[in-house]
């Protein structure tokens, strides 16, 4: 299963909760990239640029999707920017878009200095980024969960209910 959506939509928290409750492996792609490079995402953006970050993101996603182990993957918000990632996700995972209003996102990440794509006006940036990506999220997702006003467990519950179950043996 892969969770996609904007920064601040709750992918990591919800993904971790889902993985724990079902005994699945959990991979946060951003954390995996940071571990691999030995530095933070803002440092990678700063030192190597966004393109290099997107290459690392694509490689890490491919490796993760190649693993046979059942996994909950929390993707970085920009994973859908590359067509290869969108195609691979659709093909190899059940993809759920955690859709959130800009107000929700800005409340959660507006004051966070660790967001290389957000400048002095986070609401304007989140609005523009969200508008530019919504079509990609919609095209990639097999299911959409609207997360505004919901607690982590409520979101996890909706995902559990909507996810297709493997056929009983
Ligand atoms: C990004 C979102 C971040 C991280 C990087 C770029 C984006 O991940 O990958 O800062 O392009 O939206 P989260 O969505 O997990 O915050």
Cα distance spanning the termini: 20 Å
What Rg is obtained from the alpha carbons, in whole angstroms?
A: 15 Å
Give the overall shape: globular
Structure summary, number of beta strands: 5
Order of helices and strands: EHEHHHEHEHHEH
Compute the average pLDDT. 95
Largest sheet: 5 strands, parallel
- Unreliable parts: none
The hetero compounds bound to this protein are:
shikimate-3-phosphate
Which strand order does the major sheet show?
2-3-1-4-5
Binned strand content: 5-15%
Classify the helix fraction into a percent range. Answer: 55-70%
Count helical runs.
8
Query: Structural class, please?
Result: alpha/beta
Task: Write a compact overview of the structure shown.
This protein has 8 helices and 5 strands, in the order E-H-E-H-H-H-E-H-E-H-H-E-H. It is of the alpha/beta class.
Your description of this structure?
The chain is α/β, with parallel strands linked by helices and 169 residues long. Helices cover 56% and strands 12% of the residues. The chain is built from eight helices and five strands, in the order βαβαααβαβααβα. It has helices at 11-22, 29-37, 41-48, 50-66, 83-92, 102-109, 122-140, 152-162, and strands spanning 2-4, 25-28, 71-74, 95-99, 143-146. Strands 2-3-1-4-5 form a five-stranded parallel sheet, with helices on both faces. The longest helix is centred in the last third of the chain and has 19 residues, at 122-140. The radius of gyration is 15 Å and the shape is globular. The mean pLDDT is 95. Bound molecules: shikimate-3-phosphate. The site of shikimate-3-phosphate has 10 residues, from loops.
